[in-house]
Amino acid sequence: MKYDFDTITDRRGTDSLKWDVKENELPMWVADMDFKAAPEIIDAMNKRLSNGVFGYSVIPDEWYDAYIKWWKERHGFEIHRDWLIFCTGVIPAISSTVRKLATADENVVVQTPVYTGFFTSIKNNGCRILESPLRYENGRYSMDLEDLEKKLSDPQTSLMILCNPHNPIGIIWDRDTLAHIGMLAQKYNVTVISDEIHCDLTEPGEGYVPFASVSDICREVSITCIAPTKTFNLAGLQTAAVCIPNAALRHKIWRALNTDEVAEPNFLAVPAAVAAFEKGGEWLDELRIYISENRKYVTEYIKENIPEISVVDGRATYLLWLDISKVSGNSKALAGFIREKTGLFVSAGSYFGKEGDSFFRVNIACPGSVCEDGVRRLEQGIREYELSI
After folding, report:
1. pTM, whole model, 2 decimals?
2. What is the enclosing helix (H) or strand (E) of 342?
3. Which residues does the chain have with pLDDT short of 50?
């Protein structure tokens, strides 16, 4: 490989949220990677830093062009320039949208288990979380479209947050499923916020389908949140975009983002994003291969050495969703036990909704040697737990 993903970068002492742990602990929980950003991105930021003046920034044409070219070439979706609005992050965009388009006590539908930030964005704005649980059968997930229609048809439902690809389970939603969501949303006058932040992190050879690209209906009912942050490990730079084809919706969200003061970039947000989309493609292709190898290794290790748990078959993100139901139905308690005994820090599935009570989420975006350490600690923790009960 041209790029180095094997070298361990010491992130302790850098005010890292992920690595703010005890000396003996190994954090494999929050969704950021332990790889350095692509050299091309670092060079672009260093060039901006070398100027020495860090004043206010504007959004140049290059920023729009970078997003448009990337989505057209990588995902076959032609975005128009005026559809894009800069935002400091996907969650700020979702929170502002909920605040603008839903009133207190209205429903926002989510498909659980799902990313915890959705719950916060809904609750903090005085709205109700209306769960449409995903079906889990024979180790695989699918949408319960009958239940989803029931929830969307509620007169108190104004919004749905779609996770595409889905965090934490890693599923890539197919075109027919997305088209059905669009049809239901139009039928019941519901706006779909599509969080597509993990879209570039698919298994090699696999793509994803942008929700707004599926049909005219999906395009007109959608607000899509996109960013280079998960893909290129830039979350701390606060750089994202909202793509809104519908002009009336776009004006409302433009007003919302500006009212909440989350529509202005810091001085590194634009050059980092532009460099990522213009020069980061080769780095990303190698990263996807590397993560895929980590996924295979962890899956096989668990199958051979910890057969009482299993890895749910996900084809996107760098997060593994582990079924621990044969060991415990209390993921929070088991995760706490494993952390205390081995230092391994994983995410309890219960944080993603009650449907996650018997699951763990594990971040494998790290050097292979770290993955190996992590699964050995997992095995040790499971064995000690089984002996303790």
Report:
1. 0.97
2. helix 331-342
3. none
